[in-house]
From TrEMBL, chain A:
Name assigned to this protein: Tetrathionate reductase family octaheme c-type cytochrome
Chain spans, region Disordered: 21-53
SUPFAM superfamilies: Multiheme cytochromes
Organism: Marichromatium bheemlicum
UniProt cross-references to InterPro entries, sorted A to Z: Multihaem_cyt_sf, Multiheme_Cytochr_ET, Octahem_Cyt_c
Range of residues in the leader sequence: 1-21
From TrEMBL, chain B:
Record flagged with keyword Ribosomal protein: no
Organism: Marichromatium bheemlicum
Name listed for the protein in its UniProt record: Cytochrome B
Its membrane topology: Multi-pass membrane protein
Chief place where the protein resides: membrane
Keywords carried by this UniProt record: Cell membrane, Membrane, Transmembrane, Transmembrane helix
Amino acid sequence: MSITTRLVAVGLMLAACSPTAATQPSPTAVDQTALETPGQRPQQSGPLSGGSADHTKFEVLQQTFTTGPEVTEACLSCHTETGQHFMRNIHWTWDYVDPETDQQLGKRHLINNFCTNARGNEGMCAQCHAGYGWKDEHFDFTDQTQIDCLVCHDGTGNYYKTPNNEGHSACSVMFEDMPPLDLGEIARNVALPSRANCGTCHFNGGGGDNVKHGDLSTALIDPPRTLDVHMDAAGLNFACTACHITKQHLWAGSRYKVIAKDTEGTGLPGERRDVATCESCHGLSPHPIDSVRAFKLNDHISSVACQTCHIPEFARGGVATITDWDWRTAGKTHDGEGYHEHGYTQGNGEQRYTYKSIKGDFIYAEDVVPEYAWFDGQMHYTTIDTRFDDSQQPIEVNHFGGTRADGDSRIWPFKRMRTWMPYDAGNATLVYTHLWGVDDTAYWGNYDMGQAIARGMADFGLDYSGEFGFVETLSWWPITHMVAPKEDALACRDCHAAEGRLAGLEGVYLPGRDHNRWLDLIGILAVGLTLLGILIHALIRLFSKGEQH
Amino acid sequence: MAMRKVLIFGRFERFWHWSQMVLIVILMFTGFGLHGFHNLFDFETAVTVHMYAATALLILWLFSVFWLFTTETWRHFLPTGRGLWQVLRFYSYGIFRGERHPYRKAFWRKHNPLQALAYLMLKVVLFPLIWVTGLLYIFYFLWRDIPLATTWLEAIAMIHTGAAFAILAFAFIHVYMLTTGHSFREHVAPMITGFDLVDLNPEEEAYLEKDQPAMIR
């Protein structure tokens, strides 16, 4: 019952927003027994596993809590420094300044080519903020009692969150009739975060199951070995924090700061490296050298990311990802009411929406072969401040560089997301769109994009020309989860072939793929002419006077 | 002067020749497979076999070089212009007229001038081209961080492939030559039994009969 409840809640919160949604079976409701059986085996959380306290015995938790912040205060009464630690991480700040590019990043500021922007839509989007009650600019980021400990540490599976403001009535109806929370029971049963805890938000980014990343879906709550060799519920059973190791509530491994090429490996004996790279566990020579094959594979490490061979496809395990999104068709209604259409049945049998009035059209894909490119780990974003040349479409919401020669890059797999999204056609910038709100300008309710953009920009004092259009955008998502078992990794010929996966990749000589046309031509001609010469010589011998000796 | 059957290809030389042949055939098949000309083997099998065969061939060549110099047999491969024209003329003209091959094997000159030149070029040009580039290729991991490494690698790969084409052409001509003059079987036989007809001077004949009776029939 427990995890199912959570998933129903998440599904309702994130997957759909329309009057009919509440009557639909939840698209993320999963068979309950399948989830609970492995749940009894504790997941591996890396160095933190074990534990030294039983929270059911804590006196401060023997009470009835009526609000989340009350629970947080109880937590902080023992974990005295944790609040200060926690308030530094991006789950709380949603704010990150790239030290290399000085770009202002973080969910609080960025525009993505899914639901476009959290900014101004916190009433809905900040359900995935690890705090309580962020609905507008007045949220107090210095108040540690507003930290939501339970969303990550709930061990019962019963915890859920609802939007921080109710939004338009067309959407808020979804969140009625949720079962009441027993916060005391949940507080007494806190645990290290399981995959389901992290997945509450990270598996549902972009507005639904696996919509955004492609390699993070609810299929990873209870994955078989074939889906992810580390998270395999019946095997290694890694929690997310086994790799994303944690120190004072700061996590290793971030999309904002990618280590595209780890040259340190496991570090010194006993040394803890606070990184989430494959090499930090597997070392710099990960294939045991027992053959020429293994030797050559280790040779690839300097130029090929582990993920490139070991994640042959993403969006595996029966949950699709969205690869194309068209906001141009959003806003169609039936008699003024929004609606949605099913049109895609994914591998696990669930229906996915291919059209929603509030979002437009979607294209789904499963078992997707990634795009491959040299990647130096540094992302550059098109932010709200970036003016671009809209005659040069598609516009890359994020882009990256990297070459064979720069020493930092390796060949990485990516999900490519293509979206037609609203922009300021006068200023050639992306826009903040006011999607969720209790007012009459929110797009999710009144379906007027012009008003929603005008409001979204005006709220933050941003210049808006008043003229919007739609721009074709791309975004790039490094693929790093859904690591397949070694027997399913790519074979040499997948790349070492004329029409292989790396057919378009430049900057490297790839045997089996690369040929010098002239050399081959001359070589074949030379051998061919030799044979022809031999043939002619032999024929003349045959038909001339004959040989004596 | 007497034509006698003399042991001109010793046991090691025959072993060298045939194992070299087998290894080169293996290297040709796997190499052109890796190059993308055929798909008879999967890539990793081809790489593995190619690497092992190349290693074996390099070891064989180490022994053969040692053997050539310690036994003084390297002198058979010294280039000479004497008689070269006649041999060339024979293959391009005389052979069609039914003429007799102008060359007679001598005890210290078992290859005709054209053969000696061809084998010498193989040993000092084509083989070094392929093994030097092959070793550079294998040890790419040691120098891959130098500037323009992939450009160098591509050039090395081109030389390696080009040399392979040339060796293939050589092999075809080499085999075809066995059909000229004597029958194919008679031409191959010396490399199996070791014995071939050699024009001996009386001193050589006397020496062999007295001191090396096993080498003369």
